[in-house]
Amino acid sequence: MNSSNGLLDRIGLFSQTRWPWLLIAILSAGLVLIAHNVFQVWLYMKPCEQCVYIRFAFLCMTFGCLFTLAWPKALICRLIAYVCGVYGAIYGIMCSVKLSDIHHAIHSDDLDALFGMQGCSLEPHYPFGLPLEKWAPDWFLPTGDCGYDNSDVPMGTVLSPLQESIIQMYSDAGGWYLIPSMKFMSMAQCCLLGFIVALAIYAILFVGDMKHVAGSKKAA
Predict the structure, then answer these.
(1) Does residue 47 sit within a domain?
(2) Where would you find the membrane-spanning parts of this chain (predicted)?
(3) pLDDT for 108 beyond 80
């Protein structure tokens, strides 16, 4: 019991430094940058409705970290980070599950899998009524169909050998996969795993943080 309490106290102390929040911010913002600059711009994969929602979810996590990066020892700032982070992770899980279901239905040999499946819209509706698709359309306006993550290269585009080989690899696999040759882990499944891991990290940090805060109050 003492060893577990000691571990929670160390986690609580760690949560009051900038390091965990900097790591979360870099990973969350980095994934959004990769999705836009690499897959959308460089590989011509158009983002779907659920894709841009997933971007929003990662940015919610990033936004919360800004407060703790500025004032890591302020409890209110850490609470804001927890709320934004948990909200972003849960919202991302919901969008990833929906995208995964659509992807499975579209690529399934069972035609009944498509029955009752709700597709994607090109008019997104973000939480809190945020018009992100108007503020940054290149980042948050969906232009693709859910479940179809193949490259749509404009006519006349001259591709580099590296671009061509990567696009061909995903084309042969029928879409984006972590391991294309095995069709292992679709983009939606990778995002789902990432959000689940993020939610677990937030939970561990929060428990350790609250344990340390409670212990500090008792000591005082």
Answers:
(1) yes
(2) 21-40, 52-72, 79-99, 186-208
(3) no
The CATH number of the domain where 208 resides is what? 1.20.1550.10
Write out the DSSP string of the chain: -HHHHHHHHHHHHHHTSSHHHHHHHHHHHHHHHIIIIIIIIIS-----HHHHHHHHHHHHHHHHHHHHHH-TT-HHHHHHHHHHHHHHHHHHHHHHHHHHHHHHHHH-S-GGGGTT-----SS---GGG--HHHHSHHHHS--S-TT-----PPTT----HHHHHHHHHHHHHTS-EEEGGGTEEEHHHHHHHHHHHHHHHHHHHHHHHHHHHHHHHHH-
Report the chain's mean pLDDT, rounded to a whole number: 91
In this predicted structure, the answer to whether residue 116 has a pLDDT above a threshold of 50 is: no
pLDDT at 119 over 70: no
